[in-house]
Design goal:
The chain is an alpha/beta fold. It folds into 2 domains: 278 residues, Aldehyde Dehydrogenase, Chain A, domain 1 (3-Layer(aba) Sandwich); 193 residues, 3-Layer(aba) Sandwich (Aldehyde Dehydrogenase, Chain A, domain 2), CATH 3.40.309.10.
Length: 488
């Protein structure tokens, strides 16, 4: 695997920057070096924001919605044309199986541009005829305008998909962006700069800066007074820090933050469907999915059967390299994250958990032993206030607990300060409606998981986020709605 230089992308050009600082990009599969990333200093962030601000007043700002839409379609086509290149970069950075990335990460990452390009052309604004005392009346109507320069801070678990989920609607609405990808997974965000140029995106519309959070590119971006709004996906604690920075200038934020998502399995479920769906929601992408399930509640009458079948199915998962089509689960994103997850594995043992499956590091052959691997893990027997039951782990693990009544499990599911997602498994339609509507979350699946319609609202409640994106809801963040009143 060759080592690449990964550069910042500012005003349509790749640049090393003036700081002279670089950091390593290593694959979590075997720890080998795959790239050297050039870190952006404050001057590079200033240049990127200035380029984005200037582009608002340049050709991009003068384009019609239809013209921008055509360009966004070309961006999507450009990603698809270089599918294999994006796929290799994404799998190298994350370690995830090709079988996942080639039908989720890359195609959905490209689709985000087309979906929002088409959406903005078909959203009607409101208008009202207003009576006046003199009898002539007035006409009120609304128009939408771009919010301005959007700071995009994207995560490492679905790097291309979750970055374009923000960049797609931002550009469709006529904004410009400065993107700070995770330092763990910079490759596809940087590569997208080439596609932007090929698609005819004017310089300054899409900018990429690399670096870390505090006292680095992330902080420089969120503190910048010319950044008009900030969108972020990641940990709740980081979101709190960004929100404090955004308070200066009263700038808008859109956050999808941490979660500790429940899955609820009722005795009247389709057992095989519930097993298969919960296997996905717990172990997909090595458990590194914001919407994943870490708490599973199973009605007592089927608890033993569910645990036995679920653990048997999980024990059959194959850990391996991304290129192997039979690989079910890759490594965690980094050794740092591996140590965090293993720390929780140890906490579970210390707190008296029954380890049904896993709980350690798998024995991987050859060079793979240097990777960030952990075992798929299942616990039972812990109290409701145990660390692994209440704190987000972001690994391939879950705790399974029995419950007796519908009221009890609703209270348990809603007991934490998080409220991102939930999954309910039942063949009783009335129960499905009763329970799903009482979940204090932004999205609740019934008899499915990760089934997404991009037209629907997406986001978290409580400490799991602020705002909604998706479909017309994205326009609420990426545009300013202006009312115009004309006296007739």
């Amino acid at each position: 695997m060759s080592t690449k230089e990964i550069l910042n992308f500012i005003n349509g050009e790749y640049t090393t920057g003036t700081s002279g600082k670089t950091f390593e990009n290593r694959t979590p599969v075997d720890g080998s070096l795959i790239g050297v990333v050039h870190e952006a200093g404050r001057s590079e962030v200033d240049a990127a924001v200035a380029a984005a601000k200037a582009a608002l007043n340049g050709p991009w700002g003068k384009m019609t919605t239809e013209q921008r839409s055509e360009i966004l379609h070309r961006i999507a086509d450009g990603v698809t044309a270089r599918f294999d290149e994006f796929l290799k970069a994404e799998c190298s950075d994350t370690g995830k199986p090709v079988s996942i990335a080639n039908h989720i990460d890359i195609p959905r990452g490209a689709a985000n541009f087309k979906v929002f390009a088409d959406l903005v052309k078909n959203v009607a604004n409101e208008s009202f005829e207003t009576p006046t005392p003199d009898g002539t009346g007035a006409l009120n109507f609304s128009v939408r305008r771009p919010k301005g320069v959007i700071g995009v801070i994207s995560p490492w678990n679905l790097p291309l998909l979750l970055m374009t989920w923000k960049v797609g609607p931002a550009l469709a609405c006529g904004n410009t962006v400065v993107v700070k990808p995770s330092e763990e997974t910079p490759a596809t965000t940087a590569l997208l700069g080439e596609v932007m140029n090929e698609a005819g995106v004017p310089p300054g519309v899409y900018n990429v800066i690399h670096g870390f959070g505090p006292d680095s590119a992330g902080a420089f971006l969120t503190e910048h007074p010319d950044v008009d709004a900030i969108t972020f996906t990641g940990e709740t604690s980081t979101g709190e820090a960004i929100m404090k920075a955004a308070a200066n200038g009263v700038r808008d934020v859109s956050f999808e933050l941490g979660g500790k998502n429940p899955g609820i399995v009722f005795a009247d479920c389709d057992m095989e469907k519930a097993i298969e769906g919960t296997i996905r929601s717990v172990f997909a992408n090595c458990g590194q999915v914001c919407l994943g399930t870490e708490r599973v509640y199973v009605e007592r009458s089927i608890f033993d059967e569910f645990v036995a079948k679920f653990s048997e199915r999980a024990s059959q998962m194959k850990l391996g390299v991304p290129e192997d089509p039979e690989t079910d689960m890759g490594p965690l994103v980094s050794h740092e994250h591996q140590q965090k997850v293993l720390g929780y594995y140890q906490k579970a043992k210390d707190e008296g958990a029954t380890v049904v499956l896993g709980g350690g590091v798998p024995d991987m052959p050859g060079e793979l032993a240097n990777g960030a691997w952990v075992e798929p893990t299942i616990w039972t027997g812990l109290p409701d206030d145990a660390a692994v039951v209440t704190e987000e782990i972001f690994g391939p693990c879950c705790h399974i607990r029995p419950f007796d009544t519908e009221e009890e499990v609703i209270e348990l599911a809603n007991s934490l300060p998080y409220g991102l997602a939930a999954a309910v498994w039942t063949e009783n339609t009335s129960r499905a409606l009763r329970v799903s509507t009482q979940m204090e979350v932004g999205i609740c699946w019934v008899n499915s998981w990760f089934l997404r319609d991009l037209r629907t609202a997406f986001g978290g409640s409580k400490q799991s986020g602020i705002g909604r994106e998706g479909g017309e809801h994205s326009l609420e963040f990426y545009t300013e709605l202006k009312n115009i009143c004309i006296k007739l």
